[in-house]
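Let's sit down with a protein and look at its sequence and fold side by side. Which protein we use is up to you, so please pick one and set it down. Label the sequence line and the structure token line clearly, so we can match residues to local backbone shapes. Go ahead whenever you are ready, and we will take it from there:

***
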Amino acid sequence: MLDRIAARRAELDVVEEELAKQLVDVVERDEFEVAMRALRRIGEQIHGDVSPAGLLRGVKVSVGPLREHYWVG
């Protein structure tokens, strides 16, 4: 009986490892999709396909001058 429990536990450990790897793959895929959308939007702005004020999840975002921040510390 204990041998069967140990064998089943070993099988489940293998399944756990496989699922963890698949989860990492899914997260990476989602991150790539977000990065690709951002790059596409930047490319469109550079090529003038959209105005500098783009949309971010339905919220208007205006593009203004960059500010320099100086950290004292």
About this structure: The helical segments are 2-46. The chain has a mean pLDDT of 79. The beta strands are 54-56, 59-61. The chain is about 60% helix and 10% strand.
